Every structure is written in C-alpha cells, then in structure tokens.
C-alpha cells in the first residue's frame, strides 16, 4: 500500500475548499482517507495565514512512515519549511507547439505575397506615370470630292466616235 499526502476537495460548487489528507494512492480523490492533516482554502488571499493550515507533527510522522506528497502539497510543505522542494526547469513549456508554428509560417507567407503584389502594383503605376502618354494622332478631316456643278455636266455632250 503506497500512501499519498494529497488534496481532497470539499465545499460547494464554485466555492472550493480542500482537506490535506493522507490516503491510499488507489482510493478516489474525494473518497476514503486515513487521516486529515490540514486544510487549504484557495479563496483566501495569498498572504493570509488561514489559507493553508497544517498539523506539522502529523505531517512529519506520515513523511517518516513513507507517505509521498503530491506536487501541490509539496509546495505547501516547502513554504512551511517542513520539506524542501527542488525547483523544476522545463524550458520547452513556453515554446509554442508545431501547429502554431505552421500557422505563423503560413501567415508570414501570405503577408509576403500580399506585400509583393502591392509592390508590383506600385511599380506598374510608377512606370505608367513615368512614361508620358502617347500623343493622339490628329488626322486631317477627309473631305468628300467636290462635284462639278450639275449645270456644267449637262452642258457638255457625251463624246461619241
């Protein structure tokens, strides 16, 4: 049987309150426990003395028997000066995941594509503004051939041979 010093939730909905208990590791979180050795009220301010209450001599007894505290309880014990907790170091915790990196790469590529298209549009507009527009070719109006007056045409007889 392996013993754990852990939190057992009590209290109402949206109003958590925890008992610090010694229990068999196989028993449910809020189920049967061997002994209650403290309380934890997360709704109180962090600097409040009533936030975490421990019965130190019972905690030391159960640690001597071989009970293992959970990480959260180990933090409480470290703050109380009963047990030393080694600081953990997980440098990869703050790094974004692969999906986010892929999304950011796609976003950057789309932004580059838009910027390139905008640059080409600006370049085309600049070229169009730099070259003067071709001057329109003014053609002289074409006049219809002047016809001889009708009287002169009638005066001349057609030539016969």
Could you explain how this protein is built, in words?
Strand 1 and strand 2 form a beta hairpin. The chain has 2 domains: 3-80, 2-Layer Sandwich (S16 Ribosomal Protein, Chain: A), CATH 3.30.1320.10; 92-127. The longest helix is centred in the C-terminal third of the chain and has 33 residues, at 98-130. Helix content is 37%, strand content 19%. It has helices at residues 56-65, 71-80, 98-130, 150-155, and strands at residues 3-12, 15-24, 35-40, 52-54, 68-69. With 161 residues, the chain is of the alpha+beta class. The relative contact order is 0.09. The protein is built from 4 helices and 5 strands. It has a 5-stranded mixed beta sheet with strand order 4-3-2-1-5. The mean pLDDT is 87. The chain is rod-shaped. The N and C termini lie far apart (145 Å).
